[in-house]
Design brief:
single chain; 115 residues; mainly alpha; 2 domains
């Protein structure tokens, strides 16, 4: 108990909790983890090879978006339908738009805080 109390005090500090308010609590590692689990479910057993493939696909998706996944499919000589390409490009646009909005919001809040 003596070991846990100081840690609990630190993580329940009002200043720390205030910084966690809003939508800015997920760091990039957590975001990548989320992508990995989208490709490889925690609820079903998977082989080491499937987990490895899921990690690779998540990294490609994280760095290059849906377009990167389309490039992998192309390299594997798998056919991608026209609708799949359109949907992938649309998801990439939406992802970028959301990231830009979040950056603008964070920048605006930082400017307000400086005043």
């Amino acid at each position: 108990m003596d070991t846990i109390k100081p840690i609990f005090k630190d993580i329940s500090n009002p200043a720390l909790l205030k910084s966690c308010l809003g939508e800015k609590t997920q760091n990039t590692n957590e975001s990548l983890n989320s992508l990995i689990w989208n490709f490889c479910s925690k609820n079903t057993n998977s082989s080491k090879q499937i987990a490895h493939i899921a990690c690779n696909l998540a990294c490609i998706s994280y760095n290059s978006g849906e377009k990167g996944i389309l490039n992998v499919l192309k390299e594997l000589e798998l056919d991608t339908g026209e609708q799949q390409v359109k949907d992938s490009l649309l998801r990439d646009k939406e992802r970028i738009k959301l990231a830009e909005r979040c950056c603008q919001k964070a920048t605006l809040e930082a400017r307000k805080a400086k005043k």
